[in-house]
Amino acid sequence: MLVAFSVAPSGTGRADGSVHDAVAAAVRVVRDSGLPHRTTSMFTEIEGEWDEVFDVVKRATDAVAPYGSRVSLVLKADIRPGYAGELDGKIERLEAAIDRQEGDAGAE
Question: pTM of the prediction?
Answer without folding.
Answer: 0.86
